[in-house]
Amino acid sequence: MYISQIDIKNYRGFKENIILFQPGINIVIGHNNAGKTNLLRALQIVFDRAQQRLSIDDFNASITDFSQPPKIEISVTIKETVAAAGANNVGEDPEDKNVVYNWLVNEQQPYEARLTYQFYLPFKHHSEYFKEISSFIKEDGTYETELCFNLIDKKFLRKYIAAVFGGDPQNEEKAGSDNMERFDFQFLDAIRDAERQMFYGNNTLLRDVLNYFLDYDLTEGKDFEMLTAENKQSLRDREQEFTTKARELLGLLISRISKNGILSYAKATGADKGGNPNFDANISEQQLLFALRLIVEKLGFKLPIKNNGLGYNNLLFISLIMARMQMERSSFMGDNAKIFPILAIEEPEAHLHPSMQYKFLKFLDENIHTQKQARQAFITTHSTQITAAVDLDSIVCLYEDFEGYQRVSYPGRVFSDSNEDKDSKAYVRRFLDATKSNMLFADRVVFVEGLAEQLLLPCFAAYLKAEELLINAHTAIVSVDGTSFKHFLKLFAFQDAPDNYCLRRKVVCITDADPSHRERENDEEEEDHRRHWKSCYPFQLDTEPDKYHYSPMASHAQALLAFAANYPNMRISTPSQGIGKTLEYELAHHNPDCGLLLTDSFPTRGKNKKAAISQLMQAIKDAKEFEELSSMCQHQDIIDWLALSKWESEPKKKALLAACYHRAIEASKGEHAFLLEQQLRRNLLAQGDTRVDFKVPPYIAESITFITQ
């Protein structure tokens, strides 16, 4: 069985939320104050009796209706783990259903049980409450919220009752404590003092673990009565040997004590009349465990645990917790053994470098599925490394959308069982690395096709005086292959429906137009997929219709536009259809006389050398005719294509420069983008006439405006 969902009402930041879980590991991600810690606390409240008394600050602050006494309700659904058809149901312990039987709300397979925690004012105090609260009703019928909370805190909170009900909460059948004790909830919060909690054997955690693993080679964690006769005798022999040697050691210690000097005071006071005082001692194995302490052995040295790094101490601490959970599940505990250990960890990445984070997650996942020291784990994190290390189905996103609504999304549940969605899910799972997984944490996402756009976009925002807005909007700029946009966009295909698990975040895809053409060899064979579309310039479109088929925009861009049209939170931005091509082409097209575009990444010789492009820019600046610019161009194919075009002279001049510029930097886009970003940044700092005018391509500017609004 496993915890399949939690319903939270009026607890801290949760007004009324349902959060779904899966068997095994659940990774809860989200920005600060998204409710991650409160989610773990809500789970803890249900399963840990010591945490069930709440304060006034635990009520949701947005409560405005006090016509009834406010109530906090946290309901947990426990569901049967059903294996795939034909497989053994390895997810179920034989005792599982017996423990939750009285809490069942659905007896059909997979069965469902429910535990509901309520923190409420008993009915017998309601009349007093109504009388007092009526003083804080305003003329418009609403309540003075702050005064109402103050009244509840002062006069009624002490009368509130905390109870956990099993099954349908309307039946008010309290969950039996014996069955509740079979659940073991271990919560490791972010501010944990690992050193203090595991340093010496006089700490309960370390002592219990040491006691459990004492003679583990004989017991294997089993109760004494379950051991073989041979192992029972071996255990007795060891205990007798310890007792004998302990007595010898204590006798030696006592013999070194000068008893007369101490006991003389007893005689002087007359205390010896009740018998002669003396010393004796006996020590058990468990008592001696108090003297043990953890150390670290390295390079032949024995170092105290306090000298160890915080990260390693946290791992040691978690290891001890796992060891104790193993003990709690074993027959060593007899009838007190737990059947459902739950591990909740807040920010396990604290003090761990990325590779250690990855190793820890893999260990935990393997442990849950094989050793089962923990049956289910709930982990909150800000770490993209941890997010990238787990399966997509394990991730739960808590966040506030761009309109301020509290949302819960499940990236793994976004995809249907269709073959297309299965391919998309596999692709996202494969490529959601530590860098790209930032898209799940960010408030807004910009997908770009390459390194150039990723480097230049913040700089372009600065020219639009929007860089700070871009940063404050917590925007992630993620570079993926253009044809892969469709897979990632499905994560954000939000519709306001109960079964829509997508993220409601503003998303922009900035992609090239990439016009293309295909030869017409034979009209009857136009569907022959062996003849591929080839990239062309926009001024080539429709110039030779008898020879080519033309497309002003790449098919993947057209598909993206059609997909995004159904979702208001999405925008697909491309250069103007029939006029634009790529980012580099657009930069030159909209800045035909801007010397900032010329960087040291240009070749020093040949057709694409920097001087040739500079000469074309100067000619445009000097308003030279198109024919004169054509004579400067060393790319005859570009000249020939433009000669066929029906464009006017001015657009042709810009197109000529843009095509030559595109050719010049095609082989070094990354280096060019890096150098261009530096030059554009320096230009931003320039004053007066030294500052050069630069125009951000319109489709980029529109993207930045959309994402920052």
UniProtKB/TrEMBL annotation:
Domain of life, source organism: Bacteria
* The keyword Cell membrane appears for this protein: no
Coiled coil (UniProt feature): none
One annotated GO molecular function is:
endonuclease activity
UniProt keyword Hydrolase, yes or no = yes
Q: Which UniProt keywords apply?
A: Endonuclease, Hydrolase, Nuclease
- Domain spans labelled OLD protein-like TOPRIM: 440-514
Pfam families for this protein: AAA_15, OLD-like_TOPRIM
Which part of the chain is the Endonuclease GajA/Old nuclease/RecF-like AAA domain?
1-386
Q: Could you tell me which InterPro entries the record lists for this protein?
A: AAA_GajA/Old/RecF-like (IPR041685), Bact_Antivir_Def_Nuclease (IPR051396), P-loop_NTPase (IPR027417), TOPRIM_OLD (IPR034139)
Q: What is this protein called?
A: Putative ATP-dependent endonuclease of OLD family
Tell me which species this is from: Arcticibacter pallidicorallinus
Biological classification of the source: Bacteria, Pseudomonadati, Bacteroidota, Sphingobacteriia, Sphingobacteriales
